[in-house]
Amino acid sequence: MAENMDLNDFHWLLAIVQSIDVGVVVLDREYRVEVWNSFMENHSGRTARDAAERSFFELFPEVEERWFRNKVENVVTLGTPAFTIWEQRPYLVRFKNYQPITGLEDFMYQNTTIMPLQATNSKIEHLCLIIYDVTGVAVNKRQLQAMSDQFKHLSRTDRLTGLNNRGHWEEELKREHARHRRYGSKASLVIFDIDHFKKVNDTYGHQAGDAVIQNVAKVLREQLRDTDIAGRYGGEEFVVLLPDVDAAGGRVFAERLRMIVERLQVSYEGQVIPFTISLGVADLSEPSHDHQQVIQWADQALYNSKRNGRNQVTVFGA
Domain GGDEF, which positions (predicted)? Predict the structure, then answer.
């Protein structure tokens, strides 16, 4: 009677293993397949008979063998399960993704569990590998992260120019000012605006004025290093934070930008719009109370450039 119960239990267990919606593979210590459930059949295209006694690495050459062997040896040594999650390793075995809702993904994201299986002699002679399809969770999380990144980008970006908005570049300046005070690092701030911009708007219209602002922003982006922070101050006024650049380097950058804009020709509805920019440079190395004072210095230098005839660069305190 007990034998019949054990046999019934075995059949029930086998039925459960075959019907559950996870991959179940049992491997011996030579990594040969001994159990291969219907999930594995459906997603691999190989029947249990095809997979039986074959090497796991032969069936799945994409598996990083050295890594997997080390993982298994730790399971055997410690006698405890090991896990992998899709954030660290998108999949263990590459299965195609057939879910219609997450069909944009080419493969199945997987979490896996490697379990030690003790024999009656208490030795671990087999391992059970359980593969979970977590494509839906992974895709949703990735989409949410992408949306979060997009919202974060939009929250710090000026809509017209695509440059950093005032809130973001001022935070970066504040951080750079703190870094300078702590480590004595170099940095300079350039503020500039478009000369006689009101005349541009009055003569050619506000849409033409927007085109001029956008072209200046494009030219500015082309002159930046990866570490530079450029933004729109407001209206036709722009700022550039140049980390690790002193006042002399800031002047060189500003003068180069001034000359490029002077040669720039912006066409709007068949009309070429000539314009120039005036620039002010401030050095963070000068003793200052806070980052706002540095902005005031650069603004004062810009004012001097305008007062002295426009289309020129002035360094504060020079």
Answer: 185-318
Domains (ranges, CATH) in the chain? 2-142 (3.30.450.20), 157-315 (3.30.70.270)
Contact 44, 59 (CB under 8 A): yes
Among residues 170, 172, 176, 236, the one annotated as catalytic is 236
Residue 25 · residue 56 · CB < 8 Å: yes
Residue burial 164-200, b: 16+ Cβ < 10 Å; e: rest: bbeebbbebbeebbeebeeeeebbbbbbbbbbebeeb
The per-residue pLDDT for range 73-114, each reduced to its tens digit, is: 999 999 999 999 999 999 999 999 876 655 567 899 999 999
Q: So what's the pLDDT on residue 260?
A: 97
* pLDDT above 70: percentage of residues in the chain: 93
φ/ψ of 313, rounded to 5, equals -115, 135
Residue 29 to residue 159: CA distance in whole angstroms: 61
Q: Which long-range contacts (CB under 8 A, 24 or more apart) does 83-86 make?
A: 83/111, 83/112, 83/113, 83/114, 84/110, 84/111, 84/112, 85/111, 86/110, 86/111, 86/134, 86/137, 86/138
pTM over cut 0.90: no
Number of other CB atoms surrounding residue 37 within 10 Å: 21
CA–CA separation, 300 vs 191, rounded Å? 10
Catalytic: 105?
no
**CB of 2 within 8 A of CB of 111?**
no
Show the CA angle centred on residue 274, arms to residues 206 and 220, nearest 5°.
80
